[in-house]
């Protein structure tokens, strides 16, 4: 599957941090960076809320209501791009 985003070494640590969240929450599942875990039925509303909270806490960013677009959170790569964008905007 082609990546949604160009390869970027800056995204790898973010992807791995979010992957660690999923490994803890879903120990039997290994996610590839572009797998849509919502489409796979792996994420329910509670886990989605935990994911947003994890992203806010671990990357010291604020996820605003307008950021709660499913497209920002549906894959590891999309979360990484979202986090990178928020961090860049905060500078």
Quick overview of this protein structure:
About 50% of the residues lie in helices and about 0% in strands.
Explain what the structure shows:
- By secondary structure, the chain is mostly helical.
- It has 3 helices and no strands.
- The chain has helices at 12-25, 45-59, 76-90.
- α1 packs across α2.
- It is globular and about 35 Å long.
- The termini are far apart.
How many helices in DSSP terms? 3
Element string (H = helix, E = strand): HHH
The unreliable regions are 1-8
Q: End-to-end distance, in Å?
A: 33 Å
Q: Main β-sheet: number of strands, strand sense, barrel status? A: none
Care to count the β-strands?
Answer: 0
**Using only CA atoms, what is the Rg?**
12 Å
Oligomer: single chain
Average of per-residue pLDDT values:
90
Structural class: mainly alpha
> Per DSSP, what share of the residues sits in E-state strands of 2 or more residues?
under 5%
What is the general shape? globular
**Helix content range of the residues, please?**
40-55%
Offer a few descriptive terms.
91 residues, mainly alpha, 0% strand
Map the helices and strands:
Layout: H1 12-25, H2 45-59, H3 76-90
């Amino acid at each position: 599957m082609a990546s949604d985003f160009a390869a970027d070494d800056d995204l790898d640590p973010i992807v791995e941090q979010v992957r660690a969240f999923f490994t803890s929450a879903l120990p039997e599942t290994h996610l590839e960076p572009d797998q849509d875990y919502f489409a796979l039925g792996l994420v329910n509303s509670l886990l989605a809320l935990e994911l947003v909270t994890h992203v806010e806490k671990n990357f010291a960013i604020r996820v605003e209501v307008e950021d709660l677009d499913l497209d920002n959170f549906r894959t590891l790569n999309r979360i990484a791009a979202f986090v990178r964008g928020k961090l860049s905007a905060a500078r």
